[in-house]
Amino acid sequence: MSGVVAATVAAPSALAGGANVIAVGVLLAEFGMFRQALLRDQVRLYAAQSALISALAIVVAATRHLPDLYALAALSFALKAVIVPVVLRRMLRGIGAIGGDPRWSDIAGSHALSVASAVLIAIAVAAFGFFTVAALGLTSPVLPATALSISVAVILVAFMLMIVRRDVISQAIGFLSLENGVSLTALVVAAGLPLILEIAFLFDLLVAVVVFGLLIRVHHGRAESMSTADLTSLRG
Amino acid sequence: MLLLLTLPLAAALICLRAPLAVGRTVTAASGAASFALVLVLVPAAARHDIDYLRVLRVDALSAVFMLATGFLYAAVAVYSIGYLSGEGAGHMAGRRTRMLWAGLNLFAWAMLAAPMTSNLALMWVAIEVTTVISALLVAVEDTDGAAEAAWKYVLLASAGLGLALLATIFAYYAGSQVLGQSYDLGFTQLLAVAGRLPHAAVELTFVLAVLGFGTKMGLVPVHTWLPDAHSEAPTPVSALLSGSLLAVSFYAILRFYQVTEAAVGPAFPRNVLLVFGVASLLLSVLYLFGQRDVKRLLAYSSVEHMGILAIGVSFGAPAALAGVLLHVLAHAAAKGNAFMGAGVLVRKLGTKQISAIRGGLDLLPWSGPLFLLAVFALGAMPPFGLFRSEFEIVAGGLASRSYVPSAILIIAVTAAFLGLAASVTRMLMLPLPRPAAPVPDRVPVAARSVAEGPGSAQPGTDVAAPAAPLALTRGEPSAWMVVPVAAGAVALLWLGLHPPAVLDELFARAVALLGGGAS
Fold first, then answer.
1. Is residue B36 part of a domain?
2. In a domain, B240, yes or no
3. How far lies A145's CA from each of A54, A148, A150, B177, B454, in Å?
4. In this complex, is the C-beta atom of B213 within 8 Å of any C-beta atom belonging to chain A?
5. CA B86/CA B91 separation, integer angstroms
6. Residue B156 has pLDDT above 70, yes or no
7. Are A89 and A40 contacting, i.e. CB atoms less than 8 angstroms apart?
8. Helix orientation angle between B94-116 and B2-17, rounded to the nearest 10 degrees
9. How many domains does chain B have?
10. Closest CA to A82 of A55, A30, A46
11. Residue-number span of the structural domain to which B348 is assigned
């Protein structure tokens, strides 16, 4: 990774270093969600990841003098690190997935592959995304290109999360963290995106969370489980 | 224009609060009014672009897609009156029916809003709104199949739109290299500076956009949600999904195509679309044979037609592009018709299994023949609009010397017609086996058992009451379910025989926008 940084900027500045550290933190949180066995902790990791992205937005706002980003950071923190996790947890508690029947709170068994091989594949996929984007040579005036590569790695691991996990909550979290990855990308390459558009995106995310929640409840009501293993009647 | 944006929204609110009877009147009125407004907009858009309030913009290209949506909105609103009033009380409770009415309006609103905005980001937002609303609409019939289909749909489509969002972000990035850090992300701005956009970023944007919006549009290999959602959704929703939601997603791809073509030349985006188009066409044609569920059959036919659209754009010749636009309109009318006709059949016989549906022409004096006509139209039989559009696409393909794709197109379309016609004629022409009850199938809807018992219900009334013996007498379930289909058939004939001159103007302008001729 340092090789890539050295190629774009001679010596990584404190800002570049800090931004990369935060981006790596986001990627680690993504891997954490990927292998997490407890629903509650998965939601917590999502909140932490969202908080990290808000922190990065503040860093960018302070160093690049983009005052809009303060508002965005505050909004995205309120929504993604507080409201969405609270909504998710309330819903999970409502259907007994947290603090109720342990059958539902434990999603360790929902991996389609063994945890180790799933993580190995995810690492390979993440590395692929990382180096492919680096090869495209997209540079940004705001943050180092490494952060962009990492954000694409985050998106790919989020896809892996949705593919490998066989329970509705993980799949929903996968989508939400996919959106986090896109937010990270947006911070790197489109920091000047008008605030009103960012707000539209966030509002849209909120609507999506509500709908996901409704459908999770419908699914749980019908299937009496979180698993998607029995969603196989429609094919051909 | 502003009225067009507020009307369906207001109708949705009224439906949430008011009693059902008011809700359905309001929906039908709003559908008809929206269609009328679109009709007023079309001649204007054929002459000049209409800008409004900086973010709203209707040009010839968006007018085509709004026309398709407006027409289907009106047709479906009327059809739903019959569809929902026939529904037995046990099948769909009042609250769900209300949700369906409100959802239909919201859904149509979002689909009208998407082509009206000039802003790529707002367009993405509108399309994502269509996803979440339509996912709820798919789930509104509370069955196992519907729950499964809705979950797959919302997950796949949202993930796809995640990619589309990434495409939007990269489009912003590409633009910011020329336009500076902060700008509005209107596609007119991007087009104005397209020549100076960085190539790598634009190409990445286009591939992500095709993959992302292509998920919504049902391009192979990211089409997998489509047959599930279309077959499990209530029929009015299926018609809207297939006829206009897919088209609106295609519109989004076209906008990115416009920018990409201007930035990196036509070869790259055309090749991308050609690959996806041919894959969609070939795979869906295979699925059309041996399909057992009538709504899945129509869903795969949608995938096929989306493939044709993608191939048509990849030809790039003006004739092909005009054909594509006509195809969008005619497909909306034909597929809406086919779904609505199939909905009547399904209602009448209580099953979606093709093998169990027999004697449609005997049982349904109006819907049967109309369904047959709709399917012939879908198979591009001569007097209808789709024949004209596919003819133009193929002619354009030959003109631009894309011989192999043109040949594939002709063969696949013929095969698709055979596949569709074989199933449909069996459903309509073969007599119903008299004493034997249709075989109960594995599709959950058939949970209401279908038994044949002469002489219980009156002719022409609803047959969906659970466990009630069906009286399969000749007659339509509801006149409301016939009128819009007949209107669609007239529109198809009109498009096929003699499209009005204003459409030609509209297409000519839209083709110019898409860079027709420059190859």
1. yes
2. yes
3. 19, 5, 9, 15, 74
4. no
5. 10
6. yes
7. yes
8. 170
9. 1
10. A46
11. 2-438+475-513
Give per-residue pLDDT as tens, A99-142: 555 555 556 566 777 888 888 999 999 999 999 888 887 777 77
Q: Cβ separation of A191 and B181 shorter than 8 Å?
A: yes
Which residue out of A193, A222, A226 would a mutagenesis test of the B interface target, given it has the greatest number of B Cβ atoms within 10 Å? A193
Instruction: Calculate mean pLDDT across residues B252-265.
Output: 90
Predicted confidence (pLDDT) at residue B90 exceeds the cutoff of 60: no
Report the phi/psi class of residue B475: left, alpha or beta, with left for phi > 0 and alpha for psi in -120 to 50: left
Encode pLDDT of B464-482 as tens digits: 433 334 456 677 777 788 8
Q: Across the interface, which of A137, A189, A218 has its CB nearest the CB of B139?
A: A218
Number of domains in chain A: 1
Domain annotation covers residue A217: yes
Q: Are A56 and A196 in contact (CB under 8 A)?
A: no
Q: Is residue B255, in this structure, part of any structural domain at all?
A: yes
Per-residue pLDDT of B185-241, as tens digits, reads 788 888 888 888 888 889 999 999 999 999 989 888 888 888 888 888 888 899 999
Q: Is residue B393 part of a domain?
A: yes
Nearest to A234 among B145, B182, B287 (CB): B145
Is A7 part of any domain? no
Spatial distance between the Cα atoms of A146 and A44, rounded to a whole number of angstroms:
26
Residue A52: pLDDT above 90? yes
Tell me which residue in A174, A185, A192 faces B176 most closely, judged by beta carbons: A192
Query: Cβ–Cβ of B172/A178 closer than 8 Å?
Result: no
Partner-chain contact A193 B166, CB within 8 Å: no
Min Cα separation A100/chain B (Å): 24
Task: Answer yes or no: is pLDDT of B519 > 50.
Answer: no
Using a CB–CB cutoff of 8 Å, tell me whether A88 touches chain B: no
Range of the domain at A85: 14-221
Per-residue pLDDT of A217-229, as tens digits, reads 888 877 777 777 7
The answer to whether residue A229 is domain-embedded is no
Note whether residue A84 is domain-resident. yes
Chain B CB contacts of A141 below 8 Å: 181
